[in-house]
Amino acid sequence: MSFWAGYPEVQHELERVQHLIDQETAGPGGLISRALSDLTRRDAKFLRPGFVVLAGRIGNGGVPLGEGAIERAAAIEMLHMASLIHDDIVDGARTRRGGDSLHITLGSKRAVLAGDYLFARSFALFAKSSGQEGLRLLTPSVARLVSSVIDESSGLDESPASGLPGGSLRFNLSPRRYLHRIVGKTAVLFALSFHAGALEADTPSKDLIEPLRRVGYNLGVGFQIIDDLLDIAGDPRKTGKPRGTDLRAGVVTLPLILAMQKDSGKILPKLADQARHARWRRTRVHALEEVRRLVSRCGAFQETWSVAERYTRRAEREILRLPPGADRDTLQEATTRLLRRSA
Ligand code: FPP
Ligand code: MG
Questions:
Q1: Which stretches are annotated as coiled coil (predicted)?
Q2: Closest Cα partner for 252 from 307, 181, 308, 305?
């Protein structure tokens, strides 16, 4: 929650959210509850619940939020946690938020079930706070999220013709399809968070819903592009995740797509396959470092960052259409910090 340090009104509401998540994650008991509680406490940014809170406060003139908004914020964070637990299994990622991923501490079977539990409780909380209307919002967003991850998993050519046991990377992904994917994977849930805040009972005008959703959408696209950039170029001590997880999982992201377009010698596919399949760890690490250097040298990192910046600027312009006040300023600052983040 340290992302919101310096914003006591937001933090105060997020402590209510954390308290509710603690109650919910206590459900299964034993090892699973302990692992879930540990995961929420590892420097989670609490971005999505923060957006629910800010959207609710912007629509409500800054008065403390009702229980419904807190429940929706907790539900969205729990859904996000469930998706990360499953994502780390799908990606084979061993660390999350600077500690062991849940499938490492609990084993895959219990980690899948812990994710399922959070997923189910998240739906129950959302339904409790917003009934049919809430579920009509939530269910298509979740379906879109999962479809995008399914699409992402098709990034590998696993046919025997690829000649590689774990499949060869499909580099011919268009930037348009990449964007479609990250909208589903991230922006849809960001937009939902803003919408969930705008559902706050006293929100004076439903006219704020669409502008708030647009803030979430653009912010989400910018956020995921930076996330994908950090996966290759970030410092693992800051991100809390090892470098190159996407590549190893067969996920082709914007820095690689842009670098491929410039890679006339076609060195990148070979290096990428080495980074994924070389027999020795040292060779894999070395190949990954070569991929990073190549992407950097051809300007693809800078270009990727510029695309993220473009979406962030769109979010900033949308924010300026919202009612002015301290909460709008907080949102504006958060938006800028997300673009410049290194974690
Ligand atoms: C992180 O992406 C992953 C997601 C945003 C979504 C993952 C969703 C699933 C695995 C589907 C299951 C969903 C539910 C709701 C149970 P990333 O891998 O790019 O980011 P990372 O670097 O943080 O891992
Ligand atoms: Mg991942």
A1: none
A2: 181
Query: What's the mean per-residue pLDDT of the chain?
Result: 91
What per-residue confidence (pLDDT) applies to 167? Answer: 66
Please, is 209 exposed, middle or buried when counting C-beta atoms within 10 Å of its C-beta (0-12, 13-18, 19+)?
middle
* Whole-angstrom distance, CA of residue 328 vs CA of residue 334: 10
* Domain 2-339 coded CATH 1.10.600.10: yes
Average pLDDT over residues 171-194: 95
Q: What is the mean pLDDT of residues 261-266?
A: 83
Is the minimum distance from the CB of 231 to ligand 1 under 6 angstroms? yes
Ligand 1 pocket, 152 CB below 6 A?
A: no
pLDDT by residue (tens digit) across 38-73?
998 887 899 999 999 999 999 888 788 999 999 999
For the Cβ of 263 lying below 6 angstroms from any atom of ligand 1, the answer is: no
CA-closest candidate to residue 12, choices 41, 46, 35:
46
pLDDT tens digits for range 104-133: 999 999 999 999 999 999 999 999 999 998
CB 146 near ligand 1, within 6 Å: yes
Cβ of 86 below 6 Å from ligand 1:
yes
Task: Answer whether 294's CB lies under 8 Å from 272's CB.
Answer: no
Distance 163 CA to ligand 2 centre (A): 25
Q: What residue type is 2 in one-letter code? A: S
Structural contact between residues 106 and 116, judged by C-beta atoms closer than 8 angstroms:
no
Ligand 1, atom 16: nearest CA belongs to which residue? 83
The three-class DSSP label of residue 244 is: coil
Paired residues of 156 in beta bridges = 169
- CA–CA separation, 119 vs 311, rounded Å? 29
Among 45, 83, 223, residue to substitute to test ligand 1 (most atoms within 8 Å of Cβ): 83
